[in-house]
Design brief:
The protein is of the alpha/beta class. The chain is built from eleven helices and ten strands. Helix 2 links the parallel strand 1 and strand 2.
Length: about 300
């Protein structure tokens, strides 16, 4: 059964998690990417418009993709998306000049501790009412390996783990201490967290990608370290620097498998569907702040999902 057919069937049957009439596990995977998260937000807003939230058994996101997944599960997808063009496209959140004096360009505390708690409050209670559904992907600084959070003891615990997932090295600070571990950006370990979905038993996966068709693969660095790699080597150690250098290669391998629909988990085949914006779509990069551009990209992404699924 194709992903869209499963979505259509579950929506028509008003299928509920824990009481399915089918044996499948449908996972939603949401890519991040700094301010490209407005695209992720627009895409989950499209899913919200289609009324298919309850059709997903799990939601997996790293960095901005985790934020989009959180607002989607809380039934606030459009509210979460509006943050990008109403609340954080300013110097309170992004200020490249801070980088010149050794401070993070992105102020994660402004987003997590102010905007998401007070300005556009995320309903964390709604997320916690569905334990094990939202999987927030982050990275262990000590090993470069992924750590996946799916249980949250309270609101503070949730926001701490979400902050860790969006703490991009250099751009957004060193990371967050959780227990005895330093944790940072989930995109370092899993930019497109399909492995999280596979490990959770997914039989069907819908992947929402913030890149456009002609951007599906990213350049792989060869040769000597660049300045950012040297900084990461100094702050986190050699192993993490190697993980940072190799992240595009790993992500490209995952993306190629998604595009070829060849994902497998041991002996189990997995049905995959992905959604990309067209190459002619609006260009949004990690640090974009143009409000009209961001608003337009959100609307474009929402329409892309609705037109693609045609439920």
């Amino acid at each position: 059964m194709m992903v869209r057919d499963l979505l259509r069937q579950r929506r028509e049957e008003q299928s509920q998690r824990g009481a399915r009439g089918d044996p499948h596990h449908l996972a939603l995977v949401v890519e991040g990417g700094g301010m490209r998260g407005v695209v992720a937000g627009g895409m989950v807003s499209g899913l919200e418009e289609l009324g298919v939230l309850e059709c997903f058994d799990s939601i997996h996101g790293s960095s901005a993709g985790a934020c989009a997944g959180a607002y989607f599960l809380a039934k606030q997808a459009k509210l979460g998306t509006s943050i990008y063009y109403e609340d954080i496209n300013n110097k309170s959140f992004i200020n490249v000049w801070r980088g010149l004096i050794g401070r993070p360009i992105m102020n994660t505390s402004f987003l997590i501790d102010y905007v998401m708690r007070s300005v556009k409050p995320l309903n964390v209670d709604e997320i916690r009412r569905h334990p094990g559904v939202l999987h927030v992907v982050a990275t262990k600084a000590s090993t470069g390996e992924p750590v996946i959070f799916q249980r949250f003891s309270d609101t503070d615990d949730f926001f701490l783990k979400l902050k860790a997932s969006i703490s991009i090295p250099i751009i957004a600070g060193k990371g967050v201490n959780i227990g005895s571990e330093l944790i940072y950006d989930g995109g370092m370990a899993q930019q497109v967290p399909v492995l999280s979905a596979l490990e959770n038993g997914a039989t069907h996966i819908l992947v929402l990608m913030t890149r456009r068709h002609h951007e599906v693969t990213r350049p792989v660095r060869e040769g000597r370290y660049r300045w950012d790699e040297w900084i990461i080597r100094f702050v986190y150690g050699a192993r993490t620097a190697e993980e940072y250098r190799d992240r595009n290669r790993r992500t490209n391998d995952v993306v190629r498998a998604i595009l070829a629909r060849e994902l497998r988990e041991k002996e189990r085949s997995v049905t995959v569907e992905y959604i990309l914006r067209p190459s002619t779509g609006l260009h949004v990069d990690r640090l974009s702040t143009d409000g009209e551009l961001l608003r337009g990209a959100a609307q474009e992404a929402q329409e892309t999902v609705i037109n693609h699924l045609r439920l």
